[in-house]
Amino acid sequence: MVETIYRCVFLDRDGVINKYLENDYVKNIHEFEVLESFVDFWEKHKKYYKFIVITNQSGINKGIVNYRFFVDLSMYLVNRFNLSALYFCPHKEEENCRCRKPKNWMLKKAIERFSVDVENSYFIGDSLVDFLCADSMKIKFILTLTGKTKKEDVEKWIKKPFKIVENLSLLMLPT
Ligand SMILES: [Mg+2]
Asked: Residue 2 Cα, ligand 1 centroid: separation in angstroms?
């Protein structure tokens, strides 16, 4: 029996799909602005990859982000971008959970559940924690500069991402 395996694009949310808010959380729909460059990227790749979001959302357990709002927004994203799944960690850093990135628990679960072709999949994120998470599972990491990380920050990183792009409309993955 041949097992089908799927190519995936794993995505962080804030600063990748939607506009990055400096030191703030998305608390209402007005603060959630989808990046056109992401839509452009998604349009070009949706036929060829499964899309899975993997996001840290400590604003939930801090009591800053309303859980119901978060779930509604997530369902909207799942539908709009035909996501195969959206994994989130609601915990605060000090809760020392097993899921919060850079830990790879969520990514690992997704890889198992969707029989992911690790070799031909990508993780797109805007921060070092995304990179560390992806790298720990040997998934190629693409850094978008639309979020938390500035180009000069990367000089301090010990390992370098597979690719760095100004925004996702400039990214073309193998189809
Ligand atoms: Mg982010």
From this structure: 36
**13 CA distance to ligand 1 centroid (A)?**
6
14 counts as catalytic:
yes
Tell me if residue 39 falls in helix, strand or coil: helix
Q: What structural domains does the chain harbor?
A: 8-170 (3.40.50.1000)
Low-confidence stretches of the chain (pLDDT beneath 50): none
pLDDT digits (tens, 9 = 90+) for 81-111: 999 999 999 999 999 999 999 999 999 999 9
Q: Is 174 exposed, middle or buried (0-12, 13-18, 19+ CB in 10 A)?
A: exposed
- Per-residue pLDDT tens over the stretch 103-114: 999 999 999 999
Identify the H or E element spanning 110. Answer: helix 105-113
Catalytic residue check, 72: no
Q: Tell how far the Cα of 116 is from the centroid of ligand 1, in angstroms.
A: 22
Q: Could you tell me the distance, in angstroms and rounded to a whole number, from the CA of residue 86 to the centre of ligand 1?
A: 14
